[in-house]
Design goal:
The chain has 2 helices and 17 strands. 7% of the residues lie in helices and 52% in strands. The strands form 2 sheets. The chain has a 14-stranded antiparallel barrel. The chain has a two-stranded antiparallel ribbon with strand order 8-9. The chain has helices at 2-19, 272-275, and strands at residues 46-54, 64-73, 79-90, 93-107, 113-127, 145-159, 163-169, 175-176, 187-188, 191-198, 200-203, 206-217, 223-232, 236-243, 247-255, 260-269, 281-290.
C-alpha cells in the first residue's frame, strides 16, 4: 500500500512539473487578469481581487495557490494598468511571482471594445528536495533550487458588458531551472489560452452565461473547460463546469453589494483514484471595485 502511494505521489509530482506551471482556476471567468493582461481595466474602476485555491484537499503535497490582483483604467483614457502577485506551492516546489500588465482599449462601437495587453513578470522558483521525505535519494543530493526568472506575455480581448472573446500567451519564454541533478527537468513552458463567454437574458430575473476556456501547452492534450452559470435577480450566480481530464466543478457567486462580490467553487475529480485520496478542491474569491470618479459608473460585472 505504501509503495502504491509513493508511486502515486511521484506521478503527481511529475504531472505538476509539466501541467501546473500556469496556475489553474475554476473561477477564471471572474479572475481574467491571471490569464490575460488585456483584462486590465475591464471593470471601469479600481478592481481588487483575492483568490485562494486548495486543490485535492486532504492529499499531502497537493497544489495550494493564492493570488492578489489590482487593475484599473488610467483616468478617462483608453489605457489601463494592472498588477498580480501569485504563490503556487506543489509538494516540495514553490513559485512566487509578480507581474505588471498594461492594456490599451479601442472602442469599436458604443458597446464593443478591443483591448491589447502586455505583461512583464518575475518568478522565483524554489524546490527543497534535500529536506523532503525523498531526501535519502542520492540522485537528489545537492539539488535544491532557488532561482528567479523573468518572462513576458501578451493578450487580446474583444468584449462588451455582455460578452467577451480572448486569446493570450501569459508566459512567452520557455524557462529551464538549472539543477545539479541530471534527472531534473523542471521548466516553465509556453501556454496558449482561448476564452469566451456571453450573457443571455432569459427574463428580468434570470440570465444565463455559458463560458469556454481552451488551454494548450506543447506535449499535452488540449484542455477544455466548459461552464454554464445562471444569474438570479442580479445577486446570485450558480454554475457547473466540466474540465477535461480533470473534474466536474460547482460554482456560486454572491453580489453582496454593487461593488463587492464573493465567489466559491468546489471541484470533484473525475478520476476514481484521485477521489479515493482527497476530498475535492476548494476555491474562494473576493472582489471589490472602487469607483474612481462620480461620473464613471461601475458597470455590471458579468465576468
Amino acid at each position: 500500500m505504501k509503495k502504491t502511494i509513493l508511486i502515486f505521489c511521484l506521478w503527481l509530482f511529475s504531472c505538476a512539473i509539466y501541467g501546473q506551471q500556469q496556475v489553474m482556476f475554476t473561477q477564471y471567468m471572474f479572475n481574467g487578469l491571471a490569464i490575460n493582461p488585456a483584462y486590465a481595466g475591464i471593470h471601469e474602476g479600481l478592481s481588487g481581487s483575492i483568490l485562494w485555491r486548495e486543490q485535492w484537499a486532504g492529499f499531502e503535497g497537493a497544489p495550494s495557490t493564492q493570488t492578489l490582483s489590482l487593475h484599473s483604467p488610467i483616468g478617462q483614457s483608453s489605457a489601463s494598468y494592472g498588477a498580480l502577485i501569485i504563490r503556487d506551492k506543489i509538494g516540495v516546489t514553490e513559485q512566487i511571482g509578480a507581474q505588471g500588465a498594461a492594456a490599451y482599449r479601442i472602442f469599436i462601437n458604443e458597446e464593443a471594445r478591443l483591448s491589447f495587453g502586455l505583461q512583464a513578470s518575475m518568478t522565483n522558483f524554489r524546490a527543497n528536495y534535500i529536506d523532503s521525505t525523498t531526501g535519502s535519494d542520492p540522485t537528489l543530493a545537492n539539488s535544491n533550487v532557488n532561482e528567479i526568472k523573468p518572462n513576458f506575455g501578451l493578450g487580446l480581448l474583444y468584449h462588451s458588458d455582455k460578452y467577451y472573446l480572448g486569446f493570450s500567451i501569459p508566459q512567452m519564454l520557455n524557462q529551464s531551472f538549472d539543477q545539479t541533478s541530471e534527472s531534473s527537468e523542471a521548466q516553465l513552458v509556453r501556454h496558449y489560452f482561448i476564452t469566451g463567454g456571453i450573457v443571455i437574458d432569459l427574463n428580468p430575473d434570470f440570465k444565463l452565461k455559458p463560458n469556454l476556456l481552451l488551454k494548450y501547452v506543447a506535449g499535452a492534450p488540449i484542455q477544455v473547460d466548459l461552464n454554464l452559470n445562471l444569474l438570479i435577480k442580479e445577486i446570485v450566480w450558480v454554475g457547473v463546469s466540466y474540465r477535461s481530464f480533470e473534474s466536474i466543478d460547482f460554482l456560486m457567486q454572491l453580489q453582496l453589494t454593487p461593488k463587492l462580490q464573493l465567489g466559491y467553487a468546489y471541484d470533484l475529480s473525475t478520476s476514481s483514484e484521485l477521489r479515493s485520496v482527497n476530498s475535492g478542491s476548494h476555491e474562494i474569491m473576493l472582489n471589490y471595485v472602487f469607483q474612481l470618479t462620480k461620473t464613471r459608473a461601475v458597470s455590471p460585472r458579468y465576468f
